[in-house]
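On clarity, I found the account of how folds are encoded harder to follow than it need be. An entry of this sort, consisting of the sequence and the corresponding backbone structure tokens, reads as follows:
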Amino acid sequence: MPTLRSVLAAGVAANPAAFVLVSALVSVLGPSAGCVEEFSDDIDWTDYQGLPALEDIDLAALTPAAPVDFIELRAVYGESPPESVAATGEPCAGASDPDACTAALAALTAPWGFDRGCEPGFCYKYLAVTRGDEVFAVYDRAGLAAWLAPVDTLEEALLMVSTEGFYWVRDTPMDGGVRAREDGYELIVVRLEGDCDPIETWRYLLHVDRAGAVTERARELRTQEYGACI
């Protein structure tokens, strides 16, 4: 399917006077219109599988460099206390003082996290972990990459992209898809890029390598709404 950019470019080539029309369209549609090729037109969607919601990922598939006793996914909504979303393992199983470990785990918070959203409010998620006598939170890109490396499961790749503001629609490959590559994972995800006149979401093709580095391969405008703010 031709993109807006290709149609306009062909029109200008055929008739230079059409530049006036192109300029008018850009002024109406916004500066992002036609500036990026629509990579989704060239994708074979049968190569991609849909993604689970982040809260539904299998935490047991996380394989940190140093084994742990317990991993819990927690969510924070506004100023409310953290809520448990999912967990795997036995909390404080290897602790020399289980009571102290349990108290530390209950009090554990994180200043920020991944899977951020809930505009115009805020929410985020983080991991609460116990390993022997250690109780700690994993919540940002650097911390996740160091803790998980090498990133060798889909669940780990999803956590890495969620630290950079990306999200996805579950079971919908065009807005949340994955295919495994020899050197990592290729993901199709979404991100909010403008929150006021226009509200814009963009679709991204990303690559996550074994070290946890997230690289943009392509992007395209997904939705655009003028005259509104979040």
In short: The longest strand covers residues 184-195. Strands lie at 49-50, 70-77, 83-89, 114-117, 123-131, 134-138, 177-181, 184-195, 199-209, 214-225.
